[in-house]
Amino acid sequence: MNHVSNEPINWHLACTVEDVPAEGGACAYIQGRQIAIFNLARRGEWYATDNQCPHRQQMALARGMTGCENEEPKVACPFHKKTFSLRTGQGLNDENCRIDTFPVHIREDKVYIGL
To answer: Which regions span the lipid bilayer (predicted)?
Structure first.
């Protein structure tokens, strides 16, 4: 849920909350980008990132394993096990890798992503 630009956020309907499994992810195609959406239900938190893992440029992060590392919510690429902070996008086991993150808003059981 990291938004560092000074530009206004444009909210885009991505899916319904039912479309994203608890403790898992799903992918939505928004404004020409594949966006991975994560539901960390036990924590009551939602996150959105690029779906592309920068390690090998594979569109796979929505299928990655979610969890926490020292209270930091994370996702691990299902292919190469590179892990990323869901808050900041910073690589947790490779500081040279990072992903973009996007704000998430839930309203009336619908998931909106800010781009």
So the answer is: none
pTM for the whole structure? 0.91
**Residue for token digits 């690029």?**
50
**Which amino acid is located at 69 in the chain?**
E
Strand, coil or helix: what is 19?
Answer: helix
* Encoded amino acid at 6, one letter: N
Architecture of domain 11-114: 3-layer Sandwich (2.102)
- Of 62, 53, 65, the residue nearest 94 (C-alpha): 53
3-class SS of residue 61? helix
- Residue 63 gets which letter from DSSP? G
* Residue-range domain boundaries for the chain: 11-114
**pLDDT tens-digit profile, the chain (115 residues):** 444 455 678 999 999 999 999 999 999 999 999 999 999 999 999 999 999 999 888 899 999 999 998 999 999 999 988 999 999 999 999 989 999 999 999 999 999 999 9
